[in-house]
Give the backbone structure.
Amino acid sequence: MNIMQTGRTIAYKLYNGRIVSLSYEIPEGAEVKTILAGSGEGREIYRRGLILALDLAVKRKFSDACLWVEHSISLGYRCRLLNRPDMTSEEIVERLTSELQRIATEAIPIETVKYDPDDTDDLPGDFFELVSWSSGRRPIRGNRLSDSCAFAMGPSVPDTSWLTKWELKPLKRDFVLRFPGSASWPEIDLWVPRKKLNREFDLEEKHIARMRVQNIDQLNRRIEEDGGRQLVIMSHFYQTYRMVQIVQKLKKEFHSRRIITIAGPSSSGKTTFARLLKTYLVAQGFGARLINVDNYFRNRSETPKDSHGKPDFECLEAIHTEMFGEHLGELLEGNEIKMPLFDFHSGERHDNHTPVKLGERDFLLVEGIHGLNDALTPGVAPESKFRIYASALTQLNIDRITRMSTSDSRLIRRMVRDSTQRGYSAQETISIWPSVKRGERRNIFPFQEDADAMFNSSLPYELPVLKKYAEPLLMEVPYHSPGYHIATKLLDILDCVKPIDQKLVPITSLLREFIGGSIFS
């Protein structure tokens, strides 16, 4: 069977919103929707099967080694081998490629297994380590291929014959498992090195390895030691260290780069990061003026429309970039400007509203989704700006071959904030999330490598803190709603996580932006 066609059905969505494998026995007369191979959910289903097949290939070719799937990079997952054989990455990739091809031709079934606390004899050891933390109130599932088993974020393909398109690319000591993406399905995009982003991921991998919290099992064991106190302390010590590194760079380049632009995807903690950065700069004898790009929106009547005919506030054309660039240039020259004020209620911009002038020791902080894009500031020399990419680059794995995606981590953050501060339901937040991600892929991610510094706002202990806030919200997502499958997936993950008391979270923490109680509120 070959699924490398966008229109081929790869799974079913049941009447209650749950997504199941094609091998699932559908009740007679039940109405189901089909999941297509090229869709977002379809791609994830394909990848789950591919990772299991790779794990089996490692076990067959290198019996003493153990596969660990790490972060996402250039439409692929970076992978490493524990107890790595004494050979080059090129040699390892060559052998695994051959074995993966063999596994695909064998059409080995991939089944879904359910965790039963009363019967664990048939569960693989590393899967049992994870689900043994479950409360037992939820039917935690795994996808199993031979003796490889992974936490089920959803179904997999029915058997390995579906795995017809993939690529293994060697790196220095590791390799990348690559797969088709949404824009290019069914083809695999050209390899695009992300050196700065990859370096940031490497630093974070080393950090969580030192803290012994690389997956949920390790995280829970650390929490059992002291309730998570040491974990919280170490996490913030490290983030402070990274912030100081950025401030030291800014101090050295003050005279040539006084504009600091901050950009990143939704729910990365950019607002708190900007306020923390301002505080650090003031402590070093500098001033920092914040300028809000939102005040430079074009009038609602001039806002471009998206494909659905609705105003597209996230596109660059929604901003009066000419005025914005001109004002920044004036400020750098030492002149006073009158910043506009945008009235979101009326949809009108009121020009010449707020006087702003930079002092001799002032930085200018600009926060917004287009901060890394030089087209935001026409007329301003790129070398006069210091660009910072702030994002929640989650490094926590669920198990050794199932990663917690940065998108899911940010979704949980946003869900909690939307509920506590804006009165939105989890279903409402989930429903707009695909649109949010499309905007990020268009306006933020293409400019990541242009950043002069990167800051990871993710905290190793945040899932245990968010658990008590997120679980009740997710439980309210109704059957039949489009977000039910996502809610179920996130609830299954949170059910395996031990909680940490939110009282341990410092009032200066980025996490306070989402749970409340921030000193910056």
Remarks:
- Residues 15 and 29 are 11 Å apart (CA to CA).
